[in-house]
Specification:
It is a single chain. The chain is α+β, with helices and mostly antiparallel strands and 134 residues long. Helix content is 50%, strand content 21%. A hairpin with a 4-residue loop joins β1 (86-90) and β2. A four-stranded antiparallel beta sheet has the order 1-2-3-4. The radius of gyration is 23 Å and the shape is elongated.
């Protein structure tokens, strides 16, 4: 490949500030949209509430309605449990979250997710019944 001419090098250097500005803007946007811990905790609380209502309460048809009501009424308690069992590693542009809940007499739940661009992307989910999707 032949070396660049003076004119070609000049064009490259002239476009560099624009490229750097666009790159910095995109990275800044990702940093600004890195979801914080509070939103992740609410997300996991919703996931666990849905799991309890759709997979646990449904196993007991005679108590399904009261079970659903119990879960809904105790979402604040569930949020506190999630808060106490969640870790966050903030990398600026994204965050890695880990929630491991293992309470006495209850099966363990593990959720690992990446928070990026105002969304959560779960990559490792373990529910007691072996279901591993959200």
């Amino acid at each position: 490949m032949p070396p660049l001419s003076l004119t070609q090098r000049h064009r490259v250097w002239r476009s560099l500030p624009g490229f750097l500005t666009i790159t910095a803007s995109v990275l800044g946007l990702f940093a600004l949209t890195n979801p914080d811990r509070r939103y992740y905790e609410m997300y996991v609380t919703d996931v666990l509430s849905d799991y309890l209502i759709e997979r646990v309460c449904m196993r007991f048809p005679e108590f399904s309605e009261s079970c659903n009501q119990f879960v809904i009424e105790h979402e604040a308690d569930l949020l506190n449990i999630v808060k106490d069992h969640t870790d966050r590693a903030n990398f600026g542009l994204f965050s890695a979250y880990t929630t491991e809940i293992a309470l006495p007499m209850l099966p363990a739940v593990e959720i690992r997710a990446i928070g990026f661009a105002a969304r959560f992307f779960p990559y490792d989910v373990k529910f007691p019944d072996g279901v591993d999707d959200i």
